[in-house]
Design a protein that fits this description.
Layout (H helix, E strand, L loop, with lengths): L2 H8 L11 H12 L1 H22 L7 H10 L4 H34 L7 H13 L11 H10 L10 H4 L3 E9 L2 E8 L13 E7 L13 E5 L2 E8 L2 E7 L3 H5 L3
Antiparallel strand pairs: 1-2, 2-3, 3-6, 4-5, 5-6
Helix pairs in contact: 1-2, 1-3, 2-3, 3-5, 4-5
């Protein structure tokens, strides 16, 4: 399960009782390990709570229940009373839509991240994905099949691998999302024993450079440590490359 799949599942979450569902429980477990997903899930729960509160504030028209009961008991009067019921229902619907619209508008204004589409945040989010519990979209070790899959899913596939990466065992790939742009995530294994359910310990992320607002046109190779992982970032032919390894700088340089 990757982040996008978890979000789709967690959209069904309303109350704590929903956590009993196996799929929702698995998605919640992933959120506990993924900072970005955890933040999104917290906002989702807050939105649900606010919506419930808005619904509680909507007053039910007086006598509506008695009106419905009486109309059921007297079918002959149904035709006469139907316009009133339609009008009442329409008023309720409009009130709900107005409340919902106002809430969504205010919620988006308050929670919309400012200046979040930055190079530093991109690096942190992608490495966060790599170190979280994720599932590859395609579990194949054939680099040609991986490129074909990424191309079919509108993710960058015209990337260039270093000579060392071409000789490294691939384990698969996934497509990540970054502000509407597709990011190619290619997973490799350095050959070290991997924990259970960890598809790889070496990851290459490729995205169009223009998708990251403050990424300069040219970035000389830079090596930094992010979330305890040695990472390298550079640009080439309009693409932004991010290579991370579960290890130190000496290990990373073997694949550059």
């Amino acid at each position: 399960m990757n982040r996008n799949e978890a979000k789709n599942i967690l959209l069904l979450y309303r109350t704590e009782a929903d956590a009993a569902d196996p799929q929702i429980a698995a998605a919640i477990a992933l959120a506990k390990l993924d900072a970005e997903l955890s933040r999104w899930f917290a906002e989702h729960r807050a939105a649900q709570n606010a919506l419930r509160e808005k619904f509680r504030q909507i007053e039910v028209p007086g006598g509506l229940a008695q009106q419905i009961i009486s109309e059921q008991q007297a079918k002959s009067k149904t035709i006469l009373r139907r316009p009133k019921m339609i009008f009442t229902a329409a008023v309720c619907a409009v009130a709900i839509l107005v409340a919902l619209g106002l809430f969504i508008f205010e919620n988006k204004k308050e929670n919309l991240p400012r200046n979040y589409n930055t190079l530093a945040n991109y690096e942190n989010q992608m490495i966060g994905v790599a170190r979280s519990v994720y599932a590859m979209d395609l579990a194949k070790n054939d680099l040609t099949q991986i490129k074909n899959y990424l191309a079919q899913n509108r993710a960058p596939a015209d990337y260039t691998l270093t000579m060392s990466l071409e000789k490294t065992a691939a384990t698969g790939c996934a497509v990540q999302n970054w502000y509407g742009a597709h990011v190619s995530m290619i997973c490799f294994s350095t050959g070290k024993p991997l924990p259970k359910n960890q598809p790889g310990d070496l990851w290459l992320f490729v995205v169009d450079r223009s998708a990251v607002k403050d990424a300069p046109q040219t970035i000389p190779l830079q090596i930094v440590t992010i979330k305890g992982n040695a990472t390298a970032i550079w640009t080439d032919n309009g693409k932004l490359y991010l290579l991370g390894v579960q290890g130190d700088e000496q290990t990373l340089r073997k694949y550059l």
